[in-house]
Design a protein that fits this description.
The complex is a heterodimer of chains A (89) and B (856). Helix content of chain A is 83%, strand content 0%. Chain A is an all-alpha fold and 89 residues long. Chain A folds into two domains: 1-57; 63-89. In chain B, helix 10 (359-382) runs parallel beside helix 13 (429-452). Among the domains of chain B are: 354-502; 513-592, no CATH class; 611-650; 702-855, Four Helix Bundle (Hemerythrin (Met), subunit A) (Up-down Bundle). Classes of the chains: A mainly alpha (89), B mainly alpha (856). The interface between A and B is large, with 49 and 68 residues.
Chain lengths: 89, 856
């Protein structure tokens, strides 16, 4: 069984989101409201990453334990970054 | 014993076997011997500086000699001795304990070993490059960046590169052990039921997988500061004036965070295997199952998790804020609680059982006593106010030697414990006990006076005169401790010939599975497929396995297995049954002539040799010397060539027909291995991105823009995002085409992936060249190069690491395209799927690099 159609739709969404991220800068949102623009752009990146992981790496159809494994790595990296940054606030 | 079953491996008496072998038991032995060599190496360095410290001042080694001896002693003992020594046992024992015939990826296991050995040789070579690393084993920044290293500093660079090589070995090993333990356990053997040593190794490799990935990031960045001239850990030096930290306020803290994020889990990575050995020996020599086994395991899991949230207690005297110090003081004191539980469990096991004071038990008990002292003195350091006083003194030195060397003590117990299993001979018990006595005396005479002389500053060769008596005692203790090893080496060496032959189980109450097979075990380990379906260890013959796999796969009986610390009768029964089945199986093997697992490959050695040459070359490329440049080039080509050779070599490592695989039943071996590797890669990239975020945050997040030229625009990044997304899509299409057995479909899709990847690199190349040469830019008249400023350093290094991943991916795509041409993958899309997992991760990383480095 293949999901060719689904893969194509996902590709389309990824393409559009990347373009929107660049557009956020082009329309000058970074200058007028940096942190709002930052939020929009990062949320879009997170959604794109989840789409690639969920469909292209087909984590959606794998046992949940595989997602936990990858999520563990992510958690470790985030803990390091967040705590290190907080330590010099 | 016949050698008919050695499957192309020369006999153990032949030197070539040890270069070819991929068998876990051989590799375990190689690890043990190599680690003991590094123990002697690091130990002799320690004796040298203990001699120096007989009196205050550096009159024996000289100041630089002293600094080198202290620094490399620490690095050698922590990295090249303790963990590899423990992993000698892990290699030998874990597959036997869980019922596997080898590790999941035998050649990768050999590769881990050879990378480890060659990384150690590189470490040794660094002594001959002027001076070796001299800045303390914690490698603090900016002290260990080239600007602060006297002379050329090539030896220091070599050590950093040696550590990178070592970390690569550890990462491969972690992936291998995790895949093995989750895919190759004997039927009905639940994770919680595996013997306690194997369980301790399981938790150790989990910590390794993540902690060493963070270390790898730190080391790669440091190597880049050394070789490429990036400025992550450097302050600027403008000729005559003193360096200033104004341009890089995060430099030294960034190193401390990265290093200790690895460094604290590392303490437990070192100690957990020792804990596992202690628990095994306590069980065997008291004849009792570990009291509160369940709570012992829960405590270990808790420590493994908590180990990642205590690292800043190493940074109480840095500029981090008080709230975060307080949080980390709490987590640190908190982590001592599960350890208390484990200590009580061991003591209570002793109290409930009947102790037999054999050598392995004495070492285990000694380790427990030493660890209690080391643990309690460590709690002092975990309290912020006390740490203000103790930091940087011999209190710290004494404390961590009581912890780390306590771990080593237990491991020496393990050496005596498994010596009969590995060699088939019994060591001399009296001599073993005498060694323990000398060892324990030497240990305490060496380290205890350091608590009393705690006001001695750490890493410094001058101390107040009044403390000389304590330092002299310590030096005498050091030599006694060293001498005890001569007894051990003599005992173990002579016993190889004179020792009594032992049967499968020389210890009366030892019941884990390694004691159910002959000493040493056969190449295949077991006389059939191990199974705990009935609650006890049995070996299924080929007929049963064939019947079972034809019917319902994975159907297992209920009830659970007692694998360790049971009663003596279990072991006896198992042994008898094993012997019976062994005879039966040997005859069926000969008749059926089935396809056997492979056990020999020369490529892991060659890959590592190539890596060694390449890294030695890299250590000196910044001098522009022809010798170093040639070495780097030759080594690089040799590594790549050997990797291709290794990939092309037919090597058969079958999955077990019947096995317990929770929680990865539906994730086949290769896929699980790939995902485990990717998890560590996520941490590697995470730590790179985290470093960028930390540096930018400490500089001023938005002020950062002043470091970036106007010519650095979004567009090239957006184009590359499109290219990479499209290439990911193409890989997915290749997988679909392979499923449909369309050769041209696969070729077209892989071709598209390749073209898009090349396009990505070309676009990046054009962009970089443009930024390097910003003609007419007022702000950056010299162009925006790697060394220009913090923003350029982080940009080029992070996206460069990503580009390196793309290049590796493209080499694999090219290889797969050639194989597709030859007819591979039709109806077997799995290899393309595994590659895709990697490629998509590279894609995902870019999805974050793009906004962080191009838009924000």
């Amino acid at each position: 069984m293949s999901h060719t159609k689904l893969y194509t739709i996902v590709f389309g969404v990824l393409f559009v989101f990347a373009t929107v991220q660049a557009l956020v800068e082009t329309v000058g949102l970074l200058e007028s409201n940096y942190w709002l623009a930052f939020g929009i752009i990062m949320v879009l990146s997170v959604i794109k990453a989840l789409l690639v992981a969920g469909y292209y790496q087909h984590l959606r159809w794998e046992p949940r334990s595989v997602s936990y494994l990858a999520g563990g790595g992510l958690l470790v990296a985030l803990a390091l970054t967040a705590a290190a940054a907080y330590s010099i606030v | 014993m016949s050698h008919d079953h050695e499957h192309g491996l020369p006999p153990k008496s032949s030197v070539s076997r040890w270069f070819l072998t991929t068998n876990h038991k051989d590799i375990g032995v190689l690890y043990l011997i190599t680690a003991l060599f590094f123990l002697v190496f690091g130990g002799v360095l320690a004796l040298l500086f203990r001699l120096e410290l007989i009196s205050s001042g550096a009159d024996l080694l000289g100041s630089m000699g002293y600094n080198q001896a202290v620094s490399t002693h620490g690095l050698l003992m922590v990295f090249w001795f303790i963990s590899p020594f423990a992993f000698g046992f892990a290699n030998y024992v874990v597959p036997l304990q869980i019922g596997a015939d080898d590790l999941a990826f035998p050649r990768l296991n050999a590769l881990s070993y050879w990378l480890y050995l060659f990384s150690g040789i590189l470490m040794g070579v660094s002594f001959f490059q002027g001076t070796t690393f001299a800045g303390g084993w914690t490698m603090y920044a900016p002290l260990n960046t080239p600007a602060y290293i006297p002379g050329e500093g090539l030896g220091a660079t070599s050590v950093v590169l040696a550590l990178i090589m070592f970390t690569a070995a550890v990462t491969l090993g972690s992936v291998n052990f995790l895949t093995t333990m989750y895919r190759m356990r004997a039927e009905n053997l639940r994770m919680r039921d595996i013997p306690i040593f194997s369980l301790s190794i399981n938790l150790t490799v989990w910590m390794m997988l993540f902690a060493f990935a963070a270390l790898l990031a730190a080391l790669m960045i440091l190597a880049s500061d050394h070789i490429l001239g990036t400025t992550y850990f450097q302050y600027s030096i403008d000729g005559t004036t003193m360096p200033t930290d104004a341009d890089n306020p995060g430099a030294s803290l960034l190193w401390a965070h990265l290093f200790w994020f690895f460094g604290h889990p590392e303490v437990y990575i070192v100690f957990f295997p020792a804990l596992g050995v202690m628990a095994e020996c306590f069980q065997t020599f008291t004849g009792r199952r570990l009291v509160g086994r369940k709570w012992f395991i829960i405590s270990m899991v808790l420590v493994a998790l908590q180990s990642f949230v205590v690292w800043m207690h190493h940074m109480f005297l840095t500029g981090i804020n008080l709230p975060i110090k307080t949080i980390f003081m709490a987590t640190t004191i908190g982590i001592s609680l599960p350890f208390d539980l484990m200590v009580f469990s061991l003591i209570y096991t002793m109290a409930k059982g009947r102790v037999r004071f054999t050598t392995p038990f004495l070492f285990s008990l000694g380790a427990l006593i030493l660890f209690i002292i080391g643990g309690i003195t460590g709690v002092f350091l975990g309290a912020i106010v006390l740490d203000y006083q103790f930091r940087g003194t011999y209190w710290v030195v004494a404390h961590f030697h009581y912890v780390m060397v306590a771990g080593a003590t237990a491991l020496f117990g393990g050496l005596y414990y498994w010596y009969p299993k590995i060699t088939g001979k019994m060591y001399n018990e009296t001599l073993g006990k005498i060694q323990f006595g000398v060892y324990f005396l030497g240990f305490n005479l060496l380290y205890f006076p350091m608590f009393i002389a705690w006001e001695t500053p750490r890493r410094v060769f001058v101390y107040p005169d009044g403390l000389q008596i304590w330092h002299s005692m310590a030096t005498v203790g050091g030599f006694i401790l060293g001498a005890s090893f001569l007894l051990m080496f003599y005992n173990l060496f002579v016993s190889l010939w004179r020792g009594e032959d032992v049967g499968p189980n020389p210890w009366e109450y030892a019941t884990s599975a390694e004691w159910a097979v002959s000493s040493p075990p056969s190449l295949e380990n077991f006389p059939g497929v191990p199974s705990y379906a009935t609650g006890k260890l049995e070996f299924l013959d080929e007929e049963t396995v064939a019947e079972r796999t034809e019917s319902i796969p994975g159907a297992a009986a209920h009830g659970h297995a007692a694998t360790d610390g049971g009663t003596a009768t279990d072991g006896g029964a198992v042994t008898a049954r094993a012997a019976a089945t062994a005879t039966a199986m040997e005859s069926t093997h000969e008749v059926s002539g089935e396809e056997h697992a492979s056990h020999a490959s020369f490529w892991p050695f060659l890959v590592s040799l190539g890596g060694f040459i390449a890294f030695l070359g890299l250590s000196g490329v910044r001098t522009g010397s022809v010798f170093y440049l040639t070495m780097a080039a030759v080594g690089g080509v040799a590594t790549l060539g050997s990797l291709v050779g290794m990939t092309r070599e037919p090597f058969h490592a079958p999955e077990m027909a019947i096995a317990e695989r929770w929680p990865f039943e539906r994730v086949e071996k290769m896929k699980l291995g790939m995902w485990t590797f990717l998890a560590s890669d996520i941490v590697l990239f995470g730590a790179f991105i985290g470093s960028y975020a930390f540096i930018r945050f400490s500089y001023g997040w938005e002020a950062w823009h002043e470091l970036i030229p106007a010519a650095h625009v979004t567009f090239p990044g957006l184009v590359n995002t499109y290219l990479l997304l499209a290439s990911s899509f193409a890989v997915v299409l290749a997988m679909v085409a392979a499923e449909r057995e369309s050769k041209w479909g696969v070729l077209a899709s892989l071709g598209a992936t390749f073209a898009l990847g090349i396009g990505f690199l070309i676009n990046k190349g054009i962009e970089w060249i443009h930024l390097f040469n910003l003609h007419g830019s007022a702000a950056f008249p010299e162009g925006w190069g790697i060394t220009t400023n913090l923003a350029s350093s982080t940009f080029y290094l992070t996206t460069g690491l990503h580009a390196a991943h793309v290049i590796i991916g493209l080499v694999i795509v090219a290889y797969m395209a050639v194989r597709t041409w030859g007819g591979a993958y039709m109806g077997n899309e799995k290899p393309i799927e595994y590659f895709g997992l990697y490629w998509h991760l590279v894609d995902i990383v870019w999805l974050f690099l793009f906004p962080l480095f191009y838009i924000l």
